[in-house]
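Sequence and structure are kept together here, with a separate record for every protein. An example record follows, reproduced without changes.
>
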Amino acid sequence: MAEAALRMMAVHAHPDDEASKGAATMARYAREGIAVRVVTCTGGERGDILNPRLADDGNVLANLTRIRREEMATAAAALGVSHRWLGFVDSGLPEGDPLPPLPPESFALVPLAEATERLVAEIRAFRPQVLLTYNEHGGYPHPDHIRCHEVSVAAVRAAADPEEFPDAGEAWQVSKVYYDNGFSAERIRAIHDALSDRGLSSPFEDWLQRRDSLPRREVTTRVACADFFGQRDDALRAHATQIDPEGFFFAVPRDIEREVWPFEEWELAHSTVPVTLPEDDLFAGLRAAESDR
């Protein structure tokens, strides 16, 4: 079978989200010869500089929009994926009590139909069988992440209907939709216990003490991708304004991670093909069907 006939699209809110949510999975499938495309809804223009080493860098402060675009290009190359910008403006993360209103041009405030049509055009042009995005809570409650979920769900439905957005290309049915599930309770406990057994500090100590905060999402699919953790880490480091190379995402020694939890996890949200759960392949049920075409 020509695996190039298989295609995967990951829809993310900001540049750097693709590196912290399923990056090793994408790198694995790209290495297999499957076409993988990341679509980023916003440019991350209002993101804070989260790497303390760059927080006071005048060049970064003055050119954040351009730099984040360059970071995204470097990350995509590290993962071996193609990339498209959807073209909306970062809403920022509102803080305070009460929360301040979002800036008027923010992605989270754009009419749903407008954003949906743009993503429909991307889906119909690329024709992915598998689409990755966030759950209804956005993974965490950033307004752009929640909007990304809403737009993704609406676009998958509309892309299959030739009467919806007829100027956005020929209709295409996405076969499977998955939500990122990067921090399952089982993963957190397994890695925490492995670190504790070795006398090492765990980045999940506070999470486990606040048990009500542990994720409660269903895991339907585990993709073995330890061989691609290095590419994931390269993609993370590419987003130098957002990722501290000595921070949270690098707190677990990679040899321990490979041994204890060599997977990335997903929640199957929608499928037009028969499935048997749990899965170990996002293209389960699709490979044979595609080879018959």
Q: What stands out?
A: The CA atoms of residues 181 and 266 lie 5 Å apart. The mean pLDDT is 93. The beta strands are 7-12, 35-42, 82-88, 130-133, 176-180, 221-224, 263-271. The first strand starts at residue 7 and ends at 12.
